[in-house]
From TrEMBL:
<dbReference type="InterPro" id="IPR000835">
    <property type="entry name" value="HTH_MarR-typ"/>
</dbReference>
<protein>
    <submittedName>
        <fullName>MarR family winged helix-turn-helix transcriptional regulator</fullName>
    </submittedName>
</protein>
<dbReference type="InterPro" id="IPR036388">
    <property type="entry name" value="WH-like_DNA-bd_sf"/>
</dbReference>
<dbReference type="InterPro" id="IPR039422">
    <property type="entry name" value="MarR/SlyA-like"/>
</dbReference>
<dbReference type="Pfam" id="PF13463">
    <property type="entry name" value="HTH_27"/>
</dbReference>
<keyword id="KW-0804">Transcription</keyword>
<dbReference type="InterPro" id="IPR036390">
    <property type="entry name" value="WH_DNA-bd_sf"/>
</dbReference>
<keyword id="KW-0805">Transcription regulation</keyword>
<dbReference type="InterPro" id="IPR023187">
    <property type="entry name" value="Tscrpt_reg_MarR-type_CS"/>
</dbReference>
<feature type="domain" description="HTH marR-type">
    <location>
        <begin position="8"/>
        <end position="141"/>
    </location>
</feature>
<keyword id="KW-0238">DNA-binding</keyword>
Amino acid sequence: MNGSPKMLDDFLKYYATVLRYMDDFISEPISRYHMTFDAFLIMHEIGTSTKPILLMDIADSHHVSRSAISRQISTLLKYDYVYQVANPADRRQKSLLLTEKGQATDKQLIQDIQLVFDQWIDQLGRDRIKTMLTFFDDFTHQVIASKSKD
């Protein structure tokens, strides 16, 4: 056993409070637009992509199934945030693009989330936020990515 029982108890306590708090503050503005945080991330990824992006590209980058991404994209299509353009060479491949409404929504949500993030930087300091982001990056590459290779 690498960790002490207290370390595990602390992890469980912080997981239940900190991550839920973060999720609530980030998800609240997003839910006003009838989407989940995952759908917002997909919409933002589509909007910031410099090349045509396909559903399978998004599934790969999020380490989830195509059907999971398809469900999120269905919501984005329903509320007219994205549209699809078929590849003339292979009509099964459809690039995803933001509508004008999707672009405006993404811009507004980024502004709303930036305000919350800026408050955290003011309260905790830039260096502590950078340390937290480094930890999240390490966790993603060393734990999550290794699990998806299994």
